[in-house]
Amino acid sequence: MYLSQTKNLIIAISTTLFAFSIMIYPKAAFESSLTGLEMWWGIVFPSLLPFFIISELLICFGVVRFIGVIMEPIMRPLFRVPGSGGFVWAMGLASGFPAGAKLTARLRIDHEITREEAERLVSFTNCSNPLFILGAVSVGFFHNAELGILLAAAHYLGNIVVGLIMRFHGTNQSNQPIRQKHRKGSLVVYAIKRMNQVQQQDPRPIGKQLGDAVKHSIQTLLMIGGFILLFSVLNRMLTEFNITSILATFLATFTSVIGFSTDIISPFISGLFEITLGSKLISDISSSNLLHQAIIVSFILAFNGFSVQAQVASILAETDIRFKPFFIARILHGFIASLLTILLWRPLYVNDRTTPTVVETFASHPSISWIYHAWDHLLSIGTLITFLSLLIYIVLKWRTIMN
To answer: What is the rounded CA–CA span in Å between residue 87 and residue 65?
Structure first.
C-alpha cells in the first residue's frame, strides 16, 4: 500500500513539474513537439501502416494459424513459443517496433498463446526495421552504408540471443494451452484445416474485415504518434533544465575509464529516451572514434528508448502480459548488441573504403541497395500517405458512428 502511494505521488509530482517546464519554455516545447510530429507524420506512420493492416488481415484470414502449425517444430524447441511466434518475429523484423508487441498482444487476446509465452515472444520480436538501420542511421546520419551492415548484424543477432535467453523465463508448465489436437496425416493438410477453422469462426465479410483492419491500425499509430511527441518534448525539457548535463557529469568518470569520449554521454542519454534523436546526435560527434559511436548506437537501438517502451507498455496494458520481462530483455539486448558490435567490427567493417571488399559489395548490391532508395522515397511521399490514410480513417469512423 505504501509503495503504491509513493509511486502515485512521484508520478503526480513529475507530471506537475513537466507541465510547469512546458509553461516556462513554451518555444522549446513547441519546437520539439513539431520535430516529433514531423518524424511521425513523414516516416513512422507511412512506414508502419501497411504492415499493421496486412498483419490484421493475415490474422483474420487464418494465415497466422497456418504459419503457426508449420513453424511449431522450430519455434517451440528454440524459443518455447508457439509456431505463430514465427509470424510475429518476421513481421516485427520487417516493420520495426512496436509491431512485435502489437501482434503479440493480438495473439494473447485471441488466446493463441499463454501469458508466459507472450512475455517470451515480445522480448525478441520488437526490433528496429532494416529501413531505419540501413537507411536512416547508416546513410542518413553517418553517411556510411558499410556501417549499416554492422549495426544490422549486431542488432538482429542480438535479438536471437535474447530470444534464446528468454526461453528460460517462466519455467511453470502448468499454464500451457491445450490447443494442440491430435494430428493425423500431412502437417500442411492439418495447417490448412486450422486456417479454415479461423475463417469459419469470423463471420465478417471481407469488406468489414478490411475496414476494421484499417481503423485498428490507424488507432494504434495515433497512439504511437502521441508518445513520440510526448517524449520529444520531455527530452528537450531535460536539456533545457540541464538535467541531461548533470547526468552526463556523473557518467563522465565511467566513460573515461573505458576510453570513451565524454562528449558522447549527453547524446547517449538523449538516445535512452528517443533513439532517432540520440542516433543523430551521436553521429554528429567528431571527437569520438567510429567504433565507440557504433557501440553506443547499437545499445540504444536495442534498448528501444523509453519512448518505444512506453508505446509497448500501452499496448501490453490491454492484456495480462507483464512489462517487466520486456524491459529486462531490452537491457540484455542493449549489452549483447554492443558486444556483438565489438566482435563483428573487423570482419564486417573495413576502414579503408578505397579497396573493394565483401562488405562494400554487399552494401551496394541491388538486393540491399533498394533499402536506401526506399528510404529516400519514403521521405518524399510519406506525408501524402499519412494525410490520405487519415482521411480514410475519418470516413470509416464517420460511417461507423452514423450506422
So the answer is: 9
**Residue 375: its H or E element:** helix 366-402
Query: Which of 153, 194, 164, 233 is closest to 69 using CA atoms?
Result: 194
- The 10s digit of each residue's pLDDT in 259-268 is 777 788 888 8
Burial zone of 61 (CB within 10 Å; 0-12 exposed, 13-18 middle, 19+ buried): middle
Quick check: 151 and 137 in contact, CB under 8 A? yes
Nearest to 44, CA basis, from 276, 372, 216: 276
pLDDT band at 329 (very low <50, low <70, confident <90, very high): very high
Q: Give which of 315, 304, 370 is closest to 96, Cα–Cα.
A: 304
Q: Domain spans of the chain? A: 48-168+184-402
Reading the block at residue 201, the C-alpha cell is 469462426
> Helix count (H) and strand count (E) of the chain?
20, 0
**For residue 359, what pLDDT is reported?**
46
In this structure, the number of other CB atoms found within 10 A of the CB of residue 391 comes to 10
pTM, 2 dp: 0.79
Report the alpha-carbon angle 360-338-269, nearest 5. Answer: 115
> Which 8-state DSSP code applies to residue 127?
-
- The x, y and z cell numbers of residue 315, run together, are 499496448
Contacts of 65 (CB under 8 A, 6+ apart): 84, 112, 191, 194, 195, 197, 198
Sign of the Cα pseudo-torsion (64, 67, 69, 74, in order): negative
Answer for the pair 139, 145: CB distance below 8 angstroms, yes or no: yes
Q: What whole-number distance in Å separates Cα of residue 81 and Cα of residue 118? A: 8
